[in-house]
Design a protein that fits this description.
The structure is a homodimer. The first copy, chain A, is α+β, with helices and mostly antiparallel strands. Chain A has a domain of about 200 residues: Aldehyde Ferredoxin Oxidoreductase,  A, domain 1 (4-Layer Sandwich). In chain A, about 35% of the residues lie in helices and about 15% in strands. Chains A and B meet through α5, α14 and α15 of A and α14 and α15 of B.
């Protein structure tokens, strides 16, 4: 991956550059965050011409390393006002890696008042910026089908939907599924879909025709590493194979997907429900991964191969964990939505008090079609409930509200896409669960303090993936669970945040973490594959901390202080049932996470 | 004024305290800002129980000093997240001063989920916290009439309307007019009406029965000072008498009110119109102070004493400037709205492209009735126009949108009360004219740079009254106009900000500034009256800077940095017709205003 593609949307020009020395070992999040920190004016408006949109496939994308095809996108976030990296599976990382592209940097915007929409088509040694007004203002299911017809080489596609085109802060960056025209792969968080919209870009289409598999510098080490990691993943109970040798369900993610967590968190009393007012939800089991597993089995039994149902498909080429599901209608066997992740089922179900699986699936499908981050959209819907416009538990009411978002002149439709903080403040809500303007995900920080420390201190705004201490506090590492109620979590969160930043750069899916934390051979497999690919030894923590340093520098220059590293007041004053605890981590402990950085 | 009344809304208790030594010479803004900085936790949520609402009559309120009856209210602002002081005329300052109250400090809130509404009745040595559910959810014209019937002693009333009761960020603190039941006196800015709403207080009713005129420490100096100031005010062309000796219109404010500025700013090309996209407005003359003057004259001619029309009435007892107007319907002679100030006519007219006087008057009346700050509400309506929900210039459309605010379940109705930034962000607008979350008033900072420096650097969020450099840059001081386009405005803005803080503490109306800047005898009259009242010499600038220091300390502790002392990006990148200039003041110049503070 030796090239950088620079695009200037103010004059629709582009140019190619060699990867400069300073970015030599940077890819994925390491690349996007370095570029954003170096090149984006920190005080620029995130939805005007001075922001940039940066794309980078993870370091090992396109290689045979297992589950290494993640794509990072980065920009100044319209949701947080700070730096943002979001990553997802899909096809684009693979396609870009194969045609040697380390990153795409999109600057500028068409002049104010411009009505045209564009798509960017990237091929080997070739880039076109095409006027595609016929791609705009369309649901994404339709759009991706159309693009795959217009470009019949199964290109990777990322872009923004109606929400991003209207500069809404819930807008994610969609990616297409590997095997169908569903817009199910989201680099969802931070409103980066709106940044694409502000540049009047609907889609970025990556065609790898004529490309080749990237070559490791030290092939032997790379191969040794990737095989060791693969082996470790296959035998781990979270990431392992579908069934054990005796035919029983084995790998948790393959059988139940990420939504295996629904019942676990409910049991732990850390499942935020009804707008973060309880840690338990009566309806959890009905929308859990187990419920989807059962529905898939039933539907397959009834419709055989015709059933559009699955609980073990891959979100990107080469993924061995295959945690994605496809939720069918039981009556017809046809697909309702794919995937239904834990965070989505939580945001659009649990947190709204909605325990009806197909209401939740429908909300998720609408989010996918509109181009919305499910976590932010779900939390935004919770604000509409908290503010009295919809009742908690009213699935049809929530669906109706979300459908308003297609309309161009509905105040409700805009509000529902505007993000948790904006909608909450518009409705006079004083229990707005955000950090740095971004909504909290599916783990309540009151009974599980480490994840609260991550929410508060990550550069990203509240984000579980930035330092997933849940692995230690709920699931356990090497058989030991760290007390979730303990308050000394600065070191734990920092270690997770640094390692995560490293993983987000490699292209590996974060879910390898379950395995590499438990299995030293797996960890060494990961580092060998990365170091073998680069032909040099890099230190996981140092590399990760360098990324965080760039991100913290950007945020500081954008006006952030330690006061932004705090949870909302109500987490400190309203105890959460059933454990009836508040978030008692001191400010000093929060500030200790990145002391001196 | 020797007493402080402390109220705790969590248990509906109250207690009286003597004024402590440290607050001895503090009143008005000096008092509210000192208390907020000392007692409010800077990171508290502005609409939850840990915020406080502080009330203080200006130092000379209740005395015969001319135009000295302003009331300050203060809190952490839900609009800016920083400290806030807003002040207004009305009756309350007079009433409280006469019963010896220096300040009222309201802490706590009824428990979450409480449905009851309260009013606070303050009398000489007596305070009642009364359950008044029948006062809630009412238009303010009706409410004030009702309160004056329930308390037939013409009490001062301040409180919040429907907007504040629903915790909307456009909510101002209303005050009643001296002579009728109109809610025309607003301590409008910063959303402080919502702070009252969060404490479930509808009204604070001040009855001065049995009270007395406050006694100056040095009566001779006080009397000398107030008389000199009065004399200077009377002869100044801005603040002077209605007609000159030859019967011609003389005093600008008495004849045309604050809205005399409409044509002046239009002429200067600094009148922001159509969402800060031009510095001129075709319809300006039709909604100007001159137009109101003419309408009043016509109506009086037709209906004589029955006409509810005026262009020279006082907003508080003892005001000699009498700049308030009462806009009648020409056909019936009945009152449409009172007053129609420059900022309101601009926000609800010019900036929306609405040049129809009675559309603007109707919007203003609706704001008064709902309990909305006209500047914030007008800018919020502009966001609805910028975002495509209403067309610029559509008066009936704007009126219809604002009427939605009475409904409890209208998303549009909430949006229209939610403040410029929230509404703008909900609608994907990237030209949101706010500083620290508060909307800009009626002077474009691009052609008039000093006021831009004030907008950017004041502790209050964009606020012309915080340092009204327009006096120097447009109107001129002692015959000299400071070039509005010059960039070295740090010192000018700082001097205005310090003097303003002093005036806001004294109870004097800020409009004495026109006179005291031009007339050294007037200035000495002001200081003599204050120093005579206190019986000690205080320095105007030192006293003012001490107030600003408290305010800046609070904001810093709430997480503000110099990055918050900036105008939105579009003022730097979009030139304003007709002068086609951008806001070119450097960040260094902005930071120079309070360097080292």
């Amino acid at each position: 991956m030796s090239k950088i593609l620079r695009i200037d949307m103010s004059d629709l020009s582009h140019k190619w550059e060699a990867v400069p020395k300073e970015y030599e070992i940077l890819a994925g999040r390491a690349f996007t965050s370095a570029v954003v920190n170096k090149e984006v004016e920190p005080m620029s408006h995130p939805l005007r011409e001075n922001n940039m949109f940066v794309i980078s496939p993870g370091l090992l994308a396109g290689t045979p390393a297992p589950s290494s095809g993640r794509l990072s996108v980065g920009a100044k976030s319209p949701l947080t006002g700070g730096i943002k990296e979001a990553n997802a599976g899909g096809l684009t990382a693979d396609r870009l890696a194969r045609i040697g592209i380390r990153g795409i940097i999109i600057d500028g915007a068409p002049s104010r008042g411009s009505k045209d929409w564009y798509s960017i088509v990237v091929r080997k040694d070739n880039c076109e910026i095409v006027k595609t007004n016929n791609y705009a203002d369309k649901g994404l299911y339709e759009l991706i089908g159309k693009i795959w017809k217009d470009y019949p080489v199964k290109p990777g596609i990322i872009g923004c939907g109606i929400a991003g085109q209207r500069l809404m802060k819930c807008a994610g960056v969609f990616g297409n599924n590997p095997e169908n025209t569903d817009p199910g792969r989201y680099a969802g968080r931070g409103g980066l879909g709106a940044v694409l919209g502000s540049k009047r870009i609907v889609a970025i289409i990556s065609d790898s025709t004529g490309g080749e598999i990237p070559t490791p510098k030290d092939k032997e080490r790379f191969d040794r590493g990737r095989k060791a990691l693969r082996e470790a993943l296959d035998k781990h109970p979270v990431t392992g194979k579908l069934t054990s040798d005796d035919g029983k369900p084995f790998g948790g993610l393959k059988n139940y997907g990420t939504n295996i967590l629904q019942n676990i968190l409910n049991e732990a009393g850390g499942l935020p429900s009804m707008g973060f007012s309880s840690g338990r939800f009566d309806g959890a089991a009905k929308i859990s991964g187990e419920a989807v597993h059962e529905l898939v089995d039933k539907t397959k039994k009834k419709f055989g191969d015709a059933a559009e149902a699955s609980y073990a498909h891959a979100c990107h080429p080469g993924c061995v964990m295959r945690c994605s599901n496809a939720v069918p209608y039981e009556k017809t066997g046809k697909l309702h939505v794919s995937p239904l992740e834990y965070e989505s089922a939580w945001a659009l179900g649990t947190n709204l008090g909605i325990g009806v699986l197909h209401d939740v699936a429908e909300l998720n499908r609408l989010c996918n079609d509109l181009g919305l981050d499910t976590i932010e959209a779900g939390n935004t819907l919770a604000m509409l409930m908290e503010g009295g416009l919809i009742k908690y538990g009213d699935g049809p009411g929530a669906i109706k509200a979300l459908k308003e978002a297609y309309s161009t002149d509905s105040a409700l439709g805009r509000l529902v896409c505007s993000g948790t903080q904006t909608a909450g403040e518009a409705l006079g809500v004083t229990r707005i669960p955000v950090v740095k303007g971004q909504a909290l995900p599916a783990y309540d920080p009151r009974p599980i303090r480490g994840i609260g420390v991550t929410y508060a201190t990550t550069t990203m705004g509240a984000d579980h993936t930035a330092g997933y201490t849940i692995a230690a506090e709920i699931l356990g590492i090497k058989g030991t669970v760290t007390d979730p109620r303990a308050l000394n979590k600065a070191e734990l969160s920092r270690a997770f945040q640094a390692t995560t930043a490293y993983i987000d750069a490699t292209g590996y899916c974060l879910f390898i973490a379950f395995c590499i934390l438990d299995d030293d051979d797996g960890f060494k497999g990961m580092t060998d594959s990365v170091n073998g690919f680069l032909g040099k030894d890099i230190d996981v923590t140092e590399y990760g901390m360098a990324i965080l340093k760039n991100e913290r520098a950007f945020n500081k220059n954008a006006g952030f202080t330690e006061k932004d590293d705090r949870l909302p007041e109500f987490f400190r004053t309203e105890p959460l049932p059933p454990h009836n605890v508040t978030f008692d981590v001191t400010d000093a402990e929060l500030d200790a996470v990145f002391k001196g950085m």
